[in-house]
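User: Sequence recovery, please. Input:
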């Protein structure tokens, strides 16, 4: 027995939008929070030794909100998804370096968060792959 999905149905469209929204939720919230408290965003970039921190704060906000908008609207969805996948992997490698922690609860928490983020990046790669498989990348 095989199953099929009618991607053109309103229910499928709603489910797909909600799935994309769930994937982007942390980036929308994070970008919005940084935008509304820019000094805090700059301090966060400085804490990770990203210089100049104000420029990195602007770039992070642009990626989080801009790429999320691309995924949600379908405008170059594959590119937005790959941008968020790459951003997630880079920021995870920068911020969740669990292997540098001594054994214990803090290391376990960071390791769990690290692999959760790797899974999230994988979800975005899957979104891009599906989009590129179903639609032409030249569909501007």
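Assistant: Recovered sequence (140 residues):
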């Amino acid at each position: 027995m095989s199953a099929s999905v009618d991607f053109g149905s309103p229910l499928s469209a709603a489910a797909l939008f909600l799935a994309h929204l769930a994937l982007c939720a942390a980036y929308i919230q994070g970008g919005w929070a940084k935008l509304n408290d820019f000094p805090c965003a700059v301090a966060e970039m400085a804490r990770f030794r990203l210089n100049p921190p104000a420029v990195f704060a602007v770039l992070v906000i642009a990626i989080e909100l801009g790429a999320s908008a691309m995924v949600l609207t379908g405008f170059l969805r594959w590119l937005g998804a790959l941008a968020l996948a790459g951003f997630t992997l880079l920021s995870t490698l920068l911020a969740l370096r669990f292997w540098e922690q001594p054994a214990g609860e803090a290391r376990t928490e960071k390791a769990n968060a690290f692999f959760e983020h790797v899974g999230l990046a994988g979800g975005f790669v899957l979104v891009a792959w599906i989009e590129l498989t179903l639609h032409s990348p030249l569909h501007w």
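Residues 19-134 form one domain.
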